[in-house]
Structure formats: C-alpha cells, structure tokens
Amino acid sequence: MNAERPGFIEVTIDMARPDELPKIIGIYQQHNGNCKDVGCQNTFVARDTSGVAVGAITIEKIQPGWVGLRTVGVEPGLQGRGIGSQLVSGVAERLRSEGNHSITVDLDITKNQEGFYGNNSFKPLDSVSMVYKPED
Q1: For residue 124, what is the domain's CATH number?
Q2: 116 has which bridge partners?
Q3: How many domains, the chain?
C-alpha cells in the first residue's frame, strides 16, 4: 500500500461487531450488494483511525480450506482512497494464515472489478471468478 498517496486512508481490519452490522448493511445496499448473510462470524470490517466502520467484506466458507469473498463494500464517499485494497488484501492474508488454500471471488464481469481484484493479487480462475494468488 502507498500511504503517501493523497487522500489515502489507513484502516485496521477485524471482525464486525453487532453494533456495526446496520452500517455495514447500509454500505452494501448502496452498492446493491447482498446483505442476507452479514453477521459477526463471517464479516470483516475496515475501521478508520477513529474506529468508524468505512468498509466490509462478508465471506462464505465453501468447504474446508476454501473461502469465497461474497460481498465487498466501501463507504461510497471514501472510494478510491485505498480502503478496498487494504480490506481485500488484509482479509485474504488473514484467511490464508488460518489455513485456507483457496480464496475466490465471483465477478459480475465488469472491467472495474476484474482490474481491482487483479491489482490485489487475484488471478483469473475461469470466466466468472478469480482466485487469490499472491507473489510468494
């Protein structure tokens, strides 16, 4: 990450707290994201330096060792400031360190999503999904 980039917002990433779930759902709804599976056991939140939730990722455990990123969202007014990249890479690394060998994301097949995930160490898996493959 380039913290020297103008407008960059440093975040910390952890599991969502119950009091943050309404805000996370609101962020997802602004992106037309799926909110039905949001919970404290499967949703990671990005918090700014004041502790405010500014983005989130909800995951799905598909089978042992395989996790899918299901819904990702950043507060619309804060997009383009490094939050999404920190969130995706931080969550992917955490999942990997917990023994998950396959971390995938399904795409809506838009160039923006493919480029975003490609810039965050995801490689094409097939025509509709990508897999996390950091340079080792």
Answers
A1: 3.40.630.30
A2: none
A3: 1
Tell me the residue range of the domain where 35 lies: 12-132
Per-residue pLDDT of the chain (136 residues; tens, 9 = 90+): 455 677 999 999 999 999 999 999 999 999 888 888 999 999 999 999 999 999 999 999 999 999 999 999 999 999 999 999 999 999 999 999 999 999 999 987 566 788 899 999 999 999 899 999 987 5
Rg (C-alpha) for the chain, rounded Å, is 14
Burial of 109 per CB tally in 10 Å (0-12, 13-18, 19+): exposed
Longest CA pairwise span in the chain (Å): 40
Pairing between strand 102-106 and 53-63?
unpaired
pTM: 0.90
Please report whether residue 5 resides in a domain: no
In a domain, 39, yes or no: yes
Residue 7 is assigned to a structural domain of this protein: no
The SS3 assignment for 21 reads: helix
